[in-house]
Model the fold of this input.
Amino acid sequence: NTFAADRFRFTFGGTDEAPTLTQHTLTSSDTGPWEKGFRNSLHITNGNQTGGAGAQDYVQLHYVPEAQDIANSGWNYTSASSYITLSFWIKSSVAQVFNFSFGTHDGTAKYYRMKTPSLSADTWTKVTKTIPGDSGLSFDNDTGVAGYIWFWPFIGTEWTKSDASENAWTAANSGEYSIDMTSTWFTTNDATFEITGVQLEVGDVATD
Done:
């Protein structure tokens, strides 16, 4: 459980064999992010989870923005007609859908749960999600935690909700960080998960 890059933290729990995290150097064969100028990725290699996927098992990356960065960004976060856009490049050695979420910290905490498209194995995919404001959101103008952007190679059912809302702001109830997700990646020994080019920006379009 460590900070892997600036404000990106890598955590896991319940694993039979610990996953590992490295900085991976991209090459011209990494079609997609390479052409956009990205030269490194955060690269997770799964361990051998011989016990299967338990309800309390998880592997996650999360990014922690400062509250003042959101408060002063120009996003009218209390308005449903004002947007921020989260985009990133992702690749997995296993073909499946992955979950990610944006959770706020200040005021009354809320979650916004999302999914990637179904990824093809060993293929970079750019994911773009436009997130509206909500009247219940609050961000302090300070250096405290604004919230968390979670990326999950796997998250067990102890931390998910089968009928959780997708692409909508909801109350941040305990154990409902994400929608239920498949365990294919987690139960595949030495499966890999990579992410690069993460952008969080004001507006409803991801810029180049």
Notes: The radius of gyration is 17 Å. The chain has a mean pLDDT of 95.
